[in-house]
Amino acid sequence: MSVRRFVILGALLAVFACQVSAETVDGMTLHIEKLSGKAIRVWVGDYQSTTSVIALATQKGIVVVDTTGLHGLDVKLREVIARELGRSDFKYLINTHQHGDHTYGNQVYADCEIIAHEKCAAGMKSNVAVSAEIADYNKKRIGELEEELKKADGNSEESKKLRENINFLQLLVRDRDSFKLTLPTKTFADKMKLDLGDMTLELYYAGGIHSASDIFIMIPEEGLLLTGDLMADKWLTDVPGCLATFMIRTDVERDVPLLLKNWESLIARKDEINRYIPGHWNGELSYEGFENRYNYVKTMYKGIEQAVKDGKKFSEISADFALEKRFPELVGSPGFFPERHATSVRTVWCDATGAKSAAEALYSMIEKAGAEKAFKKLETAYADESNALYFDEREFNALGYRFINEQKLPEAIAVFEINVKMNPESWNVYDSLAEAHMLNGDTELAVKLYNKSLAINPDNENGKQMLERIKTAKK
Length: 475
Prior knowledge:
- The chain has helices spanning 3-20, 71-85, 100-103, 120-129, 131-151, 157-176, 256-267, 287-309, 314-320, 323-326, 338-353, 358-369, 371-384, 393-405, 409-422, 427-439, 443-456, 461-474; strands spanning 24-25, 28-36, 39-44, 53-58, 61-65, 90-94, 113-117, 186-188, 191-195, 200-205, 215-219, 224-228, 234-235, 275-278, 283-284, 356-357, 389-390.
- By secondary structure, it is of the alpha/beta class.
- The protein has three domains: 21-130 and 181-285, Ribonuclease Z/Hydroxyacylglutathione hydrolase-like (Metallo-beta-lactamase, Chain A), CATH 3.60.15.10; 290-353, no CATH class; 357-474, Tetratricopeptide repeat domain (Serine Threonine Protein Phosphatase 5, Tetratricopeptide repeat, Alpha Horseshoe).
- The strands form four sheets. The chain has an eight-stranded mixed β-sheet. Strands 9-10-11-12-14 form a five-stranded mixed β-sheet, with helices on one face.
């Protein structure tokens, strides 16, 4: 055998050996990445947007940042971390924010001090309150995915994604009954510094974008900045998961001046940072992406506040702060979509004006003054662009279904009709109005509205199913 053929054969055998010996944990591929001399991150899966767990080897013990939210999996990842670092003196667990996919494995580190922002515990408790509903959804979703898998090519990428998704959801169902809510034991409001001998961890409040309790974690000795689920400017998979949205949310408690102060202080230290690490393995972040998003929030708050002082109406502000016009560098960037940017504009406008939810106001007005007077007042406020109220498509949609659940179909139809007038380009508003008319017995109008919804969004599966159901019922 020639030397060249021997080398090629050896290389092929090496690749084959790596493929065969790839380590798995709970049926998912294990990944281990060395971030620096004293930092690693571990995660599982090749398609799911799973949380990446950071582990730091310090003089005063091992520090872990976040869990996968699957405590059965986190038990095994703790063993992997100990093996990779060659030690098992776990000292701290830090939660970057309150969401379950970062905190539901906390019980695995109950022997450690658990550190988080002071708003994290309340958010964790709120998440647990809806865990039963989520579990029921996961069980239903497993069945749907198994049906999809039967139709997929067994060796295709799609089938691999489906199998991993099914496996992941099965793990969520498996762990639910043995889950124990384990809250942080040490919290902070603005910032905190941990002296770990050969390493310093600087924790900064960064709430108000993704959740109320987000934090940045700066590790200057290792040149790392951990950003949790706040942002990414590159996606490594077509399912970005928690990194999919960068949005200023109406329903998230925030202290924007404090967020901007902390964010700006980290931008000023860019020369100390070699790498920005999002909370999920399938997203990457650059300094430019980090700075652009800071500028976005700063520009929105300062600009819209001034516009309100100048007496501009909401429609004028929305036009002035259109994504393409004001932030062209972010058009098409991960996390930015026109409809979500519009929500951000409205949220900042609400902060500047003190505007309240029109949907909530309508519900209260109906109870006090009756439906006819309430809808007239609302239409007047909408036409006048009153700074007292804001009009949100999702909130009006939820209000319509609230009336349906209360068996008040006329009120539901009226709310959905208002939503159509306010959002004529939204497929979902026609879908909801169609459902209300169908429940009211007007299937002819429901068909027209479902078809309108499908004309805007041909992928509206609910619309297709409802039309087929109406068609079948007529036979």
